[in-house]
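Appendix B. Raw example, untouched.
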Amino acid sequence: MKNVCRLKDGKTNINPHIPFTKEELNEIFNIAKQYSPKYHAMVRLLYDMAARIQDVVGLTFKDILDVKKNAKGNRIITLKDKKTGVRVVKVKPDAYKAVKEYFDSLFP
């Protein structure tokens, strides 16, 4: 990743205002997919929903798979958290597909 520079003490200095390139994101998604359908679904949800790990871990399959898609193909779900309160987020088709693949791998 070209946007990371190493400091003298070995730590990295990552500029949070420079997003991943499309190629870097695809590489992250592909690695997660090769490793496990579970991690692929989690990484997709974390990125697409801009969610925290706690939000994603707290979801059930029913929270995502039972929601009808809207005209744009997204599914709208509500995240409830003590820290951030209630947040309405959309699950994009790629994230939904990753969750569906994980579900199907568990219950063929």
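End of appendix B.
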